[in-house]
Every structure is written in C-alpha cells, then in structure tokens.
# Entry
Amino acid sequence: MRVLIPGLAGLAFAGAAAMGGAAEPASCIWHAERLGMAQARWPVGETRRVAPLSPQAIVMGGQGCGAWVREGAGLRQYDSAGLLLGTIDLAQLRQRHAADALVAAAIARQIDAADAMLALDARDGSLWLAAGTSLLHLDAGGKVLASLFHEQPVVQIEVDLLGTLWVLDEVGLGRYRADGSLLARYALGEQYPDVQRVAFDTLGGKLWLIAPRRVWQVEPTQLAVPLAPLAWREGLAYQAGQTVSFAGHLYRAQLAHIAPEDSDWTPAAAPALWQYVGTQPTASVPLPWRSDAEYRIGETVRYQDRVYRALASHSTYPQTGWTPANAPALWRLVSDESPDAPVVDEARVIEVSEPLADVAINPKSGELWLLGQHTLWAYGWDVQQRYQADLATWDIVQPQALRFDAAGETFWLHSAGKLTPFGVDGTARDARPVAADHAVLGTTALRILPTLVLKDPPPKDGGSQPTFVFQYDAMCSGRPCDFDRAHYEGYQWQVSLDDGAVTGQLVFDAVHHTARLTPTQPLADGVHLLRASITDQLGSRSTQLEHVFNVTPGALPTSNGDAPAGDLPG
# Structure
C-alpha cells in the first residue's frame, strides 16, 4: 500500500543550488577514503575523519550521524562526532561460542572475509552479517541473535521496514525472520535473468529487481514458484525450524544439529530431531484464510475460491467478521481464478540504454534512482519516469555508487574524486572532494515510528466521564512523515483503563489526526490509570502513554471540546 504520493511528476534535474536555508534538511554520510573513513555533511559542509580504517561496509541507524563499520575481524561503532563507542571482536565471539559448533562455524566464516557484507535493522539497531553462505545476526552489544547458513553464496543482504532479512543469491531470494527462521525462498529463473541487486519498497508492497540494463517492479507473489525445500542429506548443518524434503515429504528440524555421515539419522528415522510437516507440495498455493491468525502486509490467502493480498499487518479474531471479502481496508482481491493456481501478475519493466553502476530507493515515497555510466534516471513508485539527466552536467565521471539518506532526504552519488548530494526534487548541491580507491558508503536508514500524545488532558480531579483527546502521527527518521490518511487508518489501538477494557468508542478526526474517547459508563470515585499506544502496519509501536487522574465526588462532567467525528480505522 503506497501511503505517500510524491507530486514530483514533470520536474527536471536542476543545476547546483546555493547551500543553506532553514527549510533544507540536514544530511550526513560516512564514506571510505584512502587513509581511513570520513563523514560529510550537507548543508554545513563539515568533514570529520577517522583513521586508520579500511572499511568493508558501513551502515547507519534510523536517526543521527553515528555509524557501524565492518573491517576485517570486527565491527566498530562511532557516534556522530566520529568518537569510538564500542567494538565487537568476531574472533573473541567465536571463542565464547566454541561449545556450539553451528554458531562457531557461522562466526568463523565471517572473520577476515573478503566478501563481507553488513545490514542494519533500523527498528532495533541490530546487525546482520553475511560472508559466503554464513549469516549472523547480532544485537548492538554483540549478543548472537541468530546464526545460519544460506543454501547459496550470498550476493546481497537487506533488512526491510518489517524487520525481515532478504538475501539475494545467484539463483533466487531468501526471506528470514529476525530469529533466523526461513519465511520463504523464491526462484528468479528465466523470468528475471541476471538480477544483481534488489531494492525494497515495503510501504508499497513492491520489489525492484535490478539487472545490468533492465529493472522489474514486482510484488513478492509475482516471483516464480518458491524453491523447493533443501533436500536432506548427510554431513550438512541444519538450523532449528529449517524445513527439508525427504522421500517426497517435508520435515522441520526441532533442534539445530549436524547430520553425521553413515548414521542413518534421516528425518523419517529421527523423530527427536525432525517433525513431520506433510507431503511436499508441487506448486506455490496461498493458504486458506483463518479467523484466528496473524497476517503481515503482502501475504496472500484463499477465501471463497478467491485470492486476496494483505494491505496491512493485523490479527484476526472470530468475533470481528474481518474476512477478506468484508474488510477492504485490510485485504485486496488479486485473483478470481481457481485458488489452486499461483498468483502471477504482469511485472512492470524499465529498460535503460547503458549498464547500471548502482541504484538507490527512497523507501518513503517508493521513488527509485538509477545510476548509469553517463546518465541518471529517477522513476516513481508508479514506474513513470520522473527525471533523466546527463552526468556531464555536473562534471561527474566514473560513477560508482548511489545511496539515499532517509533522515536528510538526500541522494548521495559517489564518483571519481567527489561526492555529490541531490535533493529528492533532483536539485544537485555542492559536491565534496573525496580521495578513495573504491566506494564504500553509509547513509541513515528509514525508521518509522508512530507517535501518540494526550492532547489537552482532562483535569486530574474531575467528573466521572472525562473526555480524552489523543493526537496521533508518525515520525520518519526524526522528521514528520506526512503520510496520507491510508497509513493512519491501518493503526491498531491499544487502550486500557485501570488495566481493563474501556467501555467507549474512539471517534476519529482524520484531518487533524485526533481521536476522542469518552467512557460510556460513569467511573467510580477515586484514582484511575489510562494507558494507550498504537501499532502501525509495519509492527512498530509507539511509546505507551500513561495518564493518572482522579474522579472527585460531585464534580461536573469534563470535556475537551467537540472534535469533528471520524470513522474508526479498519
């Protein structure tokens, strides 16, 4: 569900603009240099350097200018001023986990890896490391959250706004939960050849598949039939929760283990290690909708011989009647065909005239920028071209990398000898000189947080039916998101009074982002506690609001005005 519609159609790339101005966002980026690592900022033009370092990868969180750097056998964390906050030594981490052969093996593959990769989950600040087939999930303190081996050598890792890890390899895509359990595995095959990178538009429910001269925009369900589970065989390491096929049936590992050779510990013969799941399916078929399940945005289900796709993450309950057919705010019909057929829609394709050096996406608007050898393009979430410009306009030669800074809403282009920032409107800003043999860049990730405050709270000593007016919104990496109404209608509200249910109905004003609640039953005299929070479609929850108030005998009813009535979301 695209929740922000950028009104940028028809704009062209502009020439270099003067720096400064209170309305311009602040942006910063960390990048490698020959003698270490440096941070560049716009519009203040500051540069901070940290040496000696030879960073292999740099990632930044959802707010501020701090960074994590991967180098050799360790990770280093720096604050916005370039001061070292802490380190994670992978060799020491392996020693601490020597008793666990699977974890120790996954860590060992990461040490001094030439193909080291790093990704950050902006929701909780945790880190994913990849090297070869090894995947490692660490929290900011170095605690191992998950360790596993992917089936193929890893080409790219990326964490989407849901906290899901996507892994691109040479034959397909893998999708993992934070605990390392596999959510899905997709083959790209002949339908999408030569894919070298993937960009994620989580809010729009889309993937961009990037080949050297072609880009496809697809929904996850448009990808080819998910790859069959790994066929069980001796000598391999298996993770708890991993599904394998054996003799035409599926089994799920109950414990992490290595299957010894010549041991006959087959899934069928070792029920202590493997749980029987069922017969191996021959096609990817959406599961039937259930009234007691949790669904995440983008999932597909079958209901009454039709296929629906979830527009928002939500839980279902038998008493609500929120079936896919009755809840258009939660589900979209995608197929009237037989539910036994996979859902396949036509992908939208972009053809370019020269090889692509890199791509970058604005995850809030869904706009994708393509960096060619001589040309810069921008396409909207609707696959309509926004801009096209010759890099020679800004004396840019040998382009190497392109990144988007979500906090400063700035695209950064790394080329021979300089870094050039661009506004989302295509305006080029003053370039920064750099001295680097290769491009390693880190920019602020998008972090979306719902916000909730009590607007003009009722007196702490008042009547038995006080009116509470809540103000709700969302912040994107420390800046107002300015989403449209559809995003806020997907909020799930948690409101309690004295740790119990509230007898009342929320009345919404979608224009002013307020919700009014008045208990339908008078409250007893004495002290009461109101708690409230909201959860968005991505699973991010606001800070819990708490308000203590007292109902005084004989006090007049309290009110906070008459906010315009709105509809209850969902």
Observations:
- The chain has three helices and 49 strands.
- The chain has four domains: 30-228+345-443, 230-279, 287-335, 448-551.
- The chain has a mean pLDDT of 84.
